[in-house]
Amino acid sequence: MIIPDAEQKTRVVHEILNQQYGVQEIYARQDPMHELIATVLSHRTTHANEVLAYRTLWERFGSWENIREAPLEELIQAIQSANYPEVKAPWIKAILSRIMAERGEAAIDFLREMTTDEAMAWLTALPGVGLKTATLLLLFNFQKPVLPVDTHVHRVTQRLGILGPKVSAEKAHALLLAYLPPDPAVLFNFHKHFYWHGQRICTWSFPKCSQCVLKNHCDYYAKARPLPMNAK
């Protein structure tokens, strides 16, 4: 669903959040292979449990080669702090096997030289790698002009009325990207600020609307706020 004036609203609220949270320099959270596997581990899992699973994986096996060759049951046990380890462990083994077979080592720095479309197609062909994982990796590590849409970005933009209520997170990637300039620094800040805002203010339950700097631009707030005492 396309919302009238959604592009204008997107840019207005983005500028407000730039002022609220400050413009950030684009940065990589960790090296590309770490980012790839950690993001696979992060699916439907808290950040703390993702970090624990990744640390345990390396403490137990010590190298990408050993992780690839590890017995599946041992790998599942190592990442049990992440939800659905029985699903993620085969994905990780398959991802490492493919990368090492194609490249001769566990490294994906070659994505930097690919076009955005080529890099996106290569990543999303890997087991367990969807749009969110691919866009996070390409934006953070390789500064490609893509926009990750996680649950926080999706929720906030829907409540604002930028996205329709039935627009999926998958479709939201392309819609939101079309409303913003193709500048990795802009897209990085949009992602980070909406992520923080969804974590801290526009939470899934009990959103803190009274503290929200976007409330005057928000469809959810307009519908949810109490009427004045003299309203008919």
From TrEMBL:
- Record carries keyword Nuclease: yes
Write down the Pfam families for this protein, in alphabetical order: HhH-GPD
Keywords of the record, alphabetical order, are: Endonuclease, Hydrolase, Iron, Iron-sulfur, Lyase, Metal-binding, Nuclease
Q: Which domain of life is it from?
A: Bacteria
**Entry EC number(s):** 4.2.99.18
- EC class name: lyase
Q: Does the record's keyword annotation contain Transmembrane?
A: no
- Give every HhH-GPD domain span: 41-200
The protein's required cofactor(s) are namely:
[4Fe-4S] cluster
MF (Gene Ontology): class I DNA-(apurinic or apyrimidinic site) endonuclease activity
**The protein's name in its UniProt record:** Endonuclease III domain-containing protein
Q: Which organism encodes this protein?
A: Larkinella bovis
The gene that this protein is the product of is nth
